[in-house]
Amino acid sequence: MAWRQTQLLNRNLFSLLPSNSNVFFAGYSSKSNLYPLKVGIPEFLNGIGNGVETYAEKLESEFGDLQNLLVARGLKLKKLNVGGDPKVCKHRKLILKYAHKYRLGLWRPRIEPPKTK
């Protein structure tokens, strides 16, 4: 009986609140935001890591912004000599792989938290 009364009480309380009210939910998170708000080509390449960030200046001058890099094809990157060396052709593959994940919303570059001593 008590269980039924609490259900009715909760239903009545929720009916009194506006539909867009978040009274019972916390408006904060205990985890800090480790994702940058605006992502550029250098932040994107630093997020990938593995030595890909060495191409930041070259790609920034050629593409200008991240959206143009995201739609670039492998042949365009190869003509820019990104990962042209057979030892580092994985760099071109990494850029294309993470660009696809970023477009789909499955991955975002993280900001490195400040190191405390």
Automatic annotation (TrEMBL):
Domain of life of the source: Eukaryota
Protein name: Uncharacterized protein
